[in-house]
Structure formats: C-alpha cells, structure tokens
C-alpha cells in the first residue's frame, strides 16, 4: 500500500517481524489480528532520554502523581519558577523533556513549564497508553498545577490539547505542532503500515468503540478545533512523513481564531528545535 501515513502511534518503521506476525495471525483469524493490532496501537516505544534533553531533566523538579480518572501514576516535570505557567504535551513515544528547546526559550521570557511522561513513556510506569489517557492527565494537571496561560502539544499531544480544551481546559492560547487530525485516518494508516487488509481498520475502530463506549472519530482534532474560542497557532511541516500537512491545514480551517505556520524540510521532530518555529511560538505566546 502506498498511502501516506499519518499514524501517531508508530514513530519508527514497524519491524518486519511484526508485519509478518500480523499477516500470519490475520490468516488464522480476523478477531485475533484485531486484538493483536489493538495491543500494538496502544503500546508506545519507550526511548532513552537523549543527551540534548538532560539539561531540562536535571533542572526540573520532578514527582510522581496519581491520575484518578485513569488510575495511573505519571511523572511530571516543573521547569523554571514563575506564576506564568505553560503546559507542554509530548507526542506518541515521546517524553516530558522532548520540547526542551521550546521550554528553554519560554523560561527566558519569564514563564515556567510543566510537562509529563504519559503512561508507558519516559519515567512513568506502565506499558500501554491511549489518547484518552493524555486528555485525562492534562485535565488533572490543570486541576493540581494550573491555571496555564498556554498549552503546547506535539503530534498526539496536539490532538490531546485540543480535546482537553473541548472537555473544559481553560487556557488563553494553544499551540499544536504536527498534530494528527481524523482518528479513522490514523487507524487506517496504522493498519496500512502493518500491511493488513483495510477491513481490519474498521474492525480495530469498532473494537475501540466497544471498549470505550464512544465513537473514536469524536476525538478528531478538527472537531475540537471548531469549538475552540481562544487563539490557536497550528504549526506543521509540508514534508512531514508521519502526519500529512493536510491534517494541520484542516485543523486551522475549523478554528475561529487560528494562525497557520507551514514549514519545509523539518519533518515531524526536527520542527521542535527549529529557530524560526521557536521564534514564532515566543511571539504568539507574548502578543
């Protein structure tokens, strides 16, 4: 299949052995391969913290907190000391220090940042996670440590920020970087990466809808964007190989008060450390 992927749950190329295993299971039973795909879809890859993020890691005040809505423990980072607070939300298989370069600049501007490792990410326990976990965490951190002036999310973190706003998160502004959009597209692209028949995408979506008793497409970013009343900056790279630029464009199109910054040749992660992107984030935050 040649469909360009927008999958937020598999940052890296899926190992051949996983693809072969998926295909073998699919020959045995569509139900079994759906369960196998569901486990893969909700299991992040836990990466070791890279050296470039150690500064933020060492200088942050960190603690484990409980998120009652999902009954999970997560590690949070408070970086800098200021009453003007900004919430940072990493993407799938990321961690709370991933937006360190953005955080460094915001601290110079007199803000402090709070970020976290989602379940199964960074220093937080567990092996599995899903977008609803991210949303519950954002709402609980806002209760415990808010209010926040601005919320900034990357990839799945961007989708989660918009959905948390839809569920009551109050911020003055929001910034989403490389955000996914339509949940059904994300699931279909994931199935395409596993080289499975497209109907498995439908079975996977129905599996999650039965498990969580709600429509997965209700979490599509453009629907949450349409309800946002505060200014929202959408940043997306035109050559993002993981989340097509059409996602960012569609989110922006549905905003009442939105700005769109399109970059070139920065992909899905390099965008987080780009000087022009960080300058735009600082300008948007301060105006």
From TrEMBL:
Domain of life: Bacteria
Peptidase S33 tripeptidyl aminopeptidase-like C-terminal domain residues: 226-284
Signal peptide extent: none
One Pfam family in the UniProt entry: Abhydrolase_6
Domain AB hydrolase-1: 86-185
InterPro entries tied to this protein: AB_hydrolase (IPR050471), AB_hydrolase_1 (IPR000073), AB_hydrolase_fold (IPR029058), Pept_S33_TAP-like_C (IPR013595)
Protein name: Pimeloyl-ACP methyl ester carboxylesterase
UniProt source species: Flavobacterium micromati
